[in-house]
Sequence to fold (1276 residues):
Amino acid sequence: MNKHTTELNFQTITGGVHSSPRHDSAHKHVSGTAVYIDDIAEPFGTLHAGLGLSSVAHGILKSVDLSAVRAAAGVVAVLTHDDVPGVNDISPSYMNDDPVLASGKVEFHGQPIFCVIAETREQARRAARLAKIEYEELPAEIDIWDLDVSTHRQVVTPLTLERGDAAVALADAPRRLNGRMRLGGQDHFYLEGQVSLAVPGEDDDVIVYCSTQGPSETQHMIAHALGVPSNAVTVEVRRMGGGFGGKETQANQCAAIAAIAAKKLKRAIKIRLDRDEDMVATGKRHDFAIDYDVGFDDEGRILAIDYTFALRAGFSADLSGPVGDRALFHCDNAYFLPHVRAKSAPLYTNTVSNTAFRGFGGPQGMVGAERVIDEIAFAVGKDPLEIRKLNFYDAMGVDGERNLTPYHQKVEDCIIQRIVAELEESADYAGRRHAIQEFNDKSRFVKRGMALTPVKFGISFTKTESNQAGALVHVYTDGSVHMNHGGTEMGQGLHLKVAQVVAEEFQIDLDRVKITATTTAKVPNTSPTAASSGADLNGMAAQDAARQIKERLIAFASDSYKVSRDEILFLPNRVRIGSVEISFAELVKKAYMARVQLSAAGFYKTPKIHWDRSKGRGHAFYYYAYGAACSEVSVDMLTGEYIVERTDILHDTGRSLNRVIDIGQVEGGFIQGMGWLTTEELWWDGKGRLRTHAPSTYKIPLASDRPKVFNVALTDWSQAYEPTIHRSKAVGEPPLPLGLSVLHALSDAVASVADHRICPRLDAPATPERVLMAIERLKAEKG
Amino acid sequence: MGATIRRELRFILNGQDIALTGIAPDQTLLDWLRLSRQLKGTKEGCAEGDCGACTVLVGRLTPRGSLVYESVNACIRFLGSLDGCHVVTVEHLSASEGHLHPVQQAMVDFHGSQCGFCTPGFIMSLYGLWMQTPSPTDQQIETALQGNLCRCTGYEPILRAARAISTYGGTDGDPLLRERETMIKRLNGLRDGARVEIGEGKDLLVVPADLDDFASILEASPNATVVAGSTDVGLWVTKQMRDITPVVFITGLDEMKSMTMTDGLVTIGAGVTYSDAVSVLSQHIPSLAELIARIGGQQVRNMGTIGGNIANGSPIGDMPPPLIALGATLTLRRGAKRRTLALQDFFVAYGKQDRQPGEFIEAVHVPVPQGSEKFAIHKVTKRRDEDITATLGAFRLTLAEDGTVASACIAYGGMAATPKRAFAVEAALIGRPWTEATVEAAMEKYADDYQPLSDMRATAEYRALVAKNLLLRFYMETTSRPAPVKVSRYEAA
Fold:
């Protein structure tokens, strides 16, 4: 028995791919010992920075009197744009429109103008309020709703996607309608705000510990602002307390300020934004105004569509160009659009510059697609789910006519039909549809609604050069492995997944692989951990590094044991060489003695993809991830308050590297998407001040907002169509738009007040107020 | 007269006795833990008591001498409020043997953490819950977690963990339960009946010896900031960076924590926290207890006081409208002098209350609705829990034998510059039959009573519409309809 058990254990490693080890830091999270930037032991003499922010939305800086700030208790220095030794710019799009500290003018309320360095953080914050700044106020554009997209200034060149002839097909369509939708933005509300600790070194050197999703970009921005080569700057991050896209470019400002101050004062500098400052001064998910003009037949099949996606870019380009692009890339969601024209309009406004947020414009595009589906369903008098199914792309394996995207990429891996069919069955869509009708017939003040919405999400950076990754793997003489790669950990379990890949490659237990902080000194020129690409790219790069070492071990063993290469097998924690078995550690030790290099840098670039923005054509995505959600809600007809009664999700992660991690991403992504579309409301006043700038006023979901019944499953039958890392699929962003099922369930409940004859056109976020106002509108229209 | 004066603040941090002399009156517990004690497990997420990343437990002796541990927000809790208390941080849970506490192990095993930044706060909230309720219902878990935000997990795995904690073994090895008797002795040892004074002049921090001592201190220094729960004053410091000195901490005054029930009147001491009030109110005025479950998070309810909610005079405080509707009165005290005032007369104008310099609210007296009275409270918010009121209506009504409305007392929050009665609406109801037609007619009168504002919580139009609709809801629920009249997450108890 014992022997047998040992034998079994010996047949698999612990923690390889397709197993479900828990998050590598879980025991540290729960005991409070996981170290975030603000927890790092501060170097002796560390000083603290506070920011002075603009109090107008748009204006010329007439005078900036900082004498009281300088004189305040504990203040060591005050920095302005004059103190930026290099270029006063951290524009990630190289537009030179994103100053580190404002110079001459301010373009949004909350823009950093100066920085105070003091002995304590509290002193710095207090001193920052003592500035006397005079502005010559200029007219400010805050909202995009009334802006003319054809004349208003755009922060970058917009994109137009075109396939077929939308104008002609619209004119010829038997049915046609148009409309407009308002879609709100979203604050990331990572629990750990923006924070950096800069430690000056000799010569030009500086090390910056920064809560950033893009250490390489942060490094390059710091070097740019300092006017030093990139090799002088090291950026390191072990983990973030949440990112969600909000630390892709938005970490750079604090990092640059801390580095500039550290070099100037030759002291370590820490900057940690207060929550209110963080929400006011850093970018968010773009809000959109979506115009649609759709032609369809009597069955509800889409024939042609013309879209305009206007987005609030804010005062600078940041990532608004590619975010608008990705909205267009997802304006089809899972539906074939025979003739389509879609254009983006990233509009300049005097608000904080909006940025990446999980989904990166994709979810906004899909919201537009689903609104159109709703409109058609009400127009032809069918259940929206029927319209959805009618318009899907051809399923994988069907070589039909309905598989070309608006950007001319062929959809080859479509599995949405099977996902939706299975979910319809498991969620008992038909049965509950009937029960809801019965309930609503009897209930005057509470109405129920339900919706099943699909997700198809394109995986790859559309910026081609970002689709590369590096990794560095060392094997030490005791057989333990040290792993490093360019991806960053923000809670998504990336380090764990990549470690699983390395463990699998060497066939050693996961606990033999050491996870280390991401640092630009080990792996250079990495892409931000974004676009759901972390495991796809870095897993491959780490696998490449491990394989190089493995190859050398095989060559060595073949040589020294005089066996052919195919007689060498990496078994769990041991290696079979001909008829001999030795432990992995023993082989490593022998290889070392024979002077075999036990370290390797790995590299990966995604094959197949290309994208020509000027033509609007290309193979923009390596593959697609799919999913679907079915949500049921109860809505209070007197107040618009609601409850999510039940949500069922079936989501595709290919052959999951780690099911529990992936389920966590699906559950969390859904709730975050639901929050975006329901209670999270960014509200600016007439002066351009964001008034929902803290959790007291900005309401992300709570535990008690979860669906009362929440069933989440992964497709256990799918695998990536392309040879991704162990045929898994990306999972960071695709689950977020599953939250659309809640918006549409609310819409369905609202529609019941007019017997489902009028499309509710429920805008987002669907706060209780928007829901009630939609109810009132339908009551009035119904007459 | 002449309480002995002690010039150091004493409390216990995890296992250690702490005696502090040179501290600022507005020093927060969170900054002290992280900066002075290098206890970095407790995190700052918002510095305003809304996200829970800073959650710690505070143990205190109740007036009856038992020891209770409650979750609180360290970010807005001042050190001055901790005299005689036991502060417990996440470091205390697994420090001794290094292995994880059941609460922690469950969170690990059920994947309750992703980025991990909120996690220590969740651990402490769940720990507080588990000590009091080892096998909680989902409703109890969700209520205990209203003050903890997680942006990664979607909460589902945290709920799974919370349900499973008690399966990880008993309470034997728990550090707080094991030391309970010793800790009661140690905390009793800290109670010397002295007044605590630290600093002087402008920088004075005072913890009065008792209620009379407080009354005389405030009479002598009417400009002092009085701090009870600090759920509002805390933000004056962390967000507005206001100078609040000198500060008088009344958090620990037992005499202000009493609740009595006599002759149909519940008397609530001004220092009674929301959490303290729930058990008594749920017996006598259940709808008020239900409302409390929607005020702040558990941490805020464990700190915030009903007296403070009244004293701060906010137009969106949740206690005043129902208390006005119930006809509550206040005892105001200045030195040895007391006066009684109807609560509805306390609120004079926005930011202005009928309170003299040196005067404070000592207690609020709340008539319990009699059997024949209909009473309800409806609070409307953007997010159901832990959100500030957009509109809150409180309704008390009696019917005559002929079915007409004999009396009506209706008050709203969020509709005017102060909590305010709906006199025109009441007039439209009184003397008329309690029917939907009467209600609809009365709904037209709201415009006479209220001209609400638009802000980030709601537009004026929405407030006006919902306020009216709440009267209709009140009518429907008082006339026993079979179908639901509002959405509800939890089945009625």
Residues 534-561 of chain A form the longest helix (28 residues). Chain A has a mean pLDDT of 97. Residues 44-139+188-281 of chain A form a domain with the Aldehyde Oxidoreductase; domain 4 fold (CATH 3.30.365.10). The longest strand of chain A covers residues 446-459.
